[in-house]
Amino acid sequence: MHKRVDGMILGSYVLVSLFGMLMVYSASSYRLWSQGDATIDLFMKQGLFVAVGFLIVGSIFCIRLSVILHSRVTIFLVVSSLIFLFMVKIPGLGVNINGAKRWLSIVGIQFQPADFAMLALVFYLAHYYRQVDKKMKTWNYPLIISGLLASLILTQPKVTGALMVLFIVLAMIMINSVPIKYIGMLIAAGLGSLLVVAGIIVFLGNHHLLPGLFHHVYERIISVSNPFDEYFGSGYQMSQSFIAIYNGGLFGLGLGNSMTKQGYLPVAETDFIFSIIVEEWGLLFSMVVLALLLGLCARIFYLSYKWDNHQEGLLLTGIGLLFFIQITVNISSISGLIPMTGIPLPFISYGGTNFLINSVAVGVVLNIASRRHDQIDYIKSRGKRAFS
């Protein structure tokens, strides 16, 4: 049977991916030129990631859905995630970049296991809740698995990644098994816990009692209130992000005309690429880009809401959450609402690991969505035959 493609999901994915390539070139060209490198170097690399990502989406779309949802695939993803996260700690395999050991290097290929682990967790939760009753006692195994993944990610250290894991598992547990009246209580408890943790970090940092592993977390929490007070320290990047957004105004300075990318905002093509988008394209056009990203999430959530298959619906929900959290955290970070996180903007920031794993997720969504389109076509054809 010929599969139908969900045009909204595929169109949003392709548009933001191609726009991301353009912005990676714009954001990185000055830095590469000043270093004596080819200005199209990162553009070509990102183009390769995008091409491979498109192939991945097409391949997963063509695979039978029953294969993707098989228990062996879920087990493989979870076990591989745990192994990769442990391997990061092995000398020679784990790569230290900017004081954090988050990368794994295997036969010259570097990737972040934390990104892989988050998608694996979504697969696991969707599969787990397919076979158990919707009771609160079924929290145990998901919390154990997510706690183990979060702990391994936290030691890299990647605090935001660990919090994302916990948020995803709690959100999917609530959606699956918690009565509505308890959801508000859990959200309040979660926010309260975050405030307590932040308070402890600030207290320990002020009294010089914070371990070196988490000292950067303290600095980022302190700098978020007024980054210009720490302009030559921990607040430098966020200050430059504010300047870029201010420079852009409503209509921007024009493509390639960013001033902050000219040696002021370090590695602007990664986590802070949206600041460059605002500076060059303006706030109005930036909202269009953001609408495309959030529209992708909204479409996935809509499909999950309309779905009749429990496992497939939960998988759609988890993938939608994965995208939405990354987008929200990145935009909140560059605009000073929360401390800097190191979370890239999906499909736009430079980098292979995040883009390819998100492409896998898009392929899965398109595969599941095609089944719904086939069902709708079948119902329509039955209706036409009934009246013919």
UniProtKB/TrEMBL annotation:
Pfam families for the chain: FTSW_RODA_SPOVE (PF01098)
Reaction equation(s) it catalyzes: [GlcNAc-(1->4)-Mur2Ac(oyl-L-Ala-gamma-D-Glu-L-Lys-D-Ala-D-Ala)](n)-di-trans,octa-cis-undecaprenyl diphosphate + beta-D-GlcNAc-(1->4)-Mur2Ac(oyl-L-Ala-gamma-D-Glu-L-Lys-D-Ala-D-Ala)-di-trans,octa-cis-undecaprenyl diphosphate = [GlcNAc-(1->4)-Mur2Ac(oyl-L-Ala-gamma-D-Glu-L-Lys-D-Ala-D-Ala)](n+1)-di-trans,octa-cis-undecaprenyl diphosphate + di-trans,octa-cis-undecaprenyl diphosphate + H(+)
One GO CC term on file: plasma membrane
Isomerase is among the record's keywords: no
GO biological process: cell division; peptidoglycan biosynthetic process; regulation of cell shape
Transmembrane residue ranges: 7-27, 47-67, 74-97, 103-126, 138-155, 161-178, 185-205, 281-302, 314-335, 347-369
Domain of life, per lineage: Bacteria
UniProt subcellular location: Membrane
Signal peptide: none
Transmembrane helix as UniProt keyword: yes
Annotated membrane topology: Multi-pass membrane protein
Keywords recorded for this protein, A-Z: Cell shape, Glycosyltransferase, Membrane, Peptidoglycan synthesis, Transferase, Transmembrane, Transmembrane helix
Chief place where the protein resides: membrane
InterPro entries in alphabetical order: FtsW/RodA
PANTHER family attached to this UniProt entry: CELL CYCLE PROTEIN, PEPTIDOGLYCAN GLYCOSYLTRANSFERASE FTSW-RELATED
Function: Peptidoglycan polymerase that is essential for cell division.
Annotated family: Belongs to the SEDS family. FtsW subfamily.
Protein name (record): Probable peptidoglycan glycosyltransferase FtsW
UniProt organism field: Vagococcus xieshaowenii
Lineage: Bacteria, Bacillati, Bacillota, Bacilli, Lactobacillales
